[in-house]
Each structure stands twice: as structure tokens, then as C-alpha cells.
Write a structure and sequence with these properties.
Elements (H helix, E strand, L loop, with lengths): L7 H9 L3 H22 L3 H18 L10 H25 L5 H21 L1 H6 L3 H12 L4 H8 L3 H19 L1
Helix pairs in contact: 1-2, 2-3, 2-4, 3-4, 7-9, 8-9
Length: 180
Amino acid sequence: MTLNSYTEKELTEALKKHDNAAYRHLYMNYRGALYNNILQIIPDTETAADVLQEAFIQIWKNIDKYDENKGRLFTWMLKLTRNMAINQTRIKNFKVHSKNEELTNYVSVIDNKTPQLTAINHIGLRQQVHKLRKELKDVIELSYFEGLKQEEISEILKIPLGTVKSRIRMAVIELRKEFL
């Protein structure tokens, strides 16, 4: 085995021993293919380069998880890299969709919050919510008073999303009867 040439088995064994020459060989010989795979998912070259760098770190850290009986080393690295690129696009989409409002909008929301809380307490909404059955009260508390999304409530209460939606609807119907 020379420094510049490895069989896949030799390379895998050297990588699992955390041999620096093997990692250099791996990087020099596979970076182009992995980078092109990332570029198919993330067209931004700078972000793609960051994902590639992170992928090689994950390969270094997780090489012991690679099982040569389940497939080739390149296939394993390709799958790992592809998943990291997909995750990066999900993170980017999440950040884009959760951008903050302009400061002026935010200030007006803060200014309007105190009267709304007072109005809720004034009309006795919280007291009426506490009169609901426990399963209805729980979803209303988390949704309206804690500001959680229905998906988050589903995870917290460990109930299906459809059940959360139904309970919120039933609770609103019950509360309407009290205020109409």
C-alpha cells in the first residue's frame, strides 16, 4: 500500500484508523464528485463548499459507522453528503419563512399587546377556558395563551395533529356559547 494508491478495503481500514494520509487521499479523490452532487441540490457555490467541508468532517467522525457489507464507501459518502445538502436547504427555507417583521410592525404589536391582554382578562376568557374539559383546556392554553403552532401542540401532548385541530375547534365552539 503506497500513500497515493489504495484499494477500497485498504482505504476504509486506514480511514477507520484515522490515518491522515488516507483522509488526504479521500479528500483529493472524492471532493469533486461530492461537490458536484451538492451543487445539484444547492446551486450557491459558497454554501455548497461549506456543506462539502462539513460533510468531510462528518465522514471523519462517523467512518466507524460505515459498513462495507452494505455498500461501497463512495455510495455511503454520497448519501451522507446528499442528506447534508438537503438538510441545508431545509434550514435555509426555514430561515427565509421565519424572517422577522419590520421593527415598526413589531413595535406596534408590542404597543397593542397590553390592551389585548387586559381585554382578555376583562371579559373573563381565561376563567372560561379553565371551565373546559381538560383535553380542550390544554390545547387552548398552548395555542392561544402560549402561542404554539398546532404541530408543536401535537408533539407536546403526543396526540395526532387532526386531534389537536378538532379539540381546538370544539373548544372554540364551547367558548362561543359562553360569550354569545
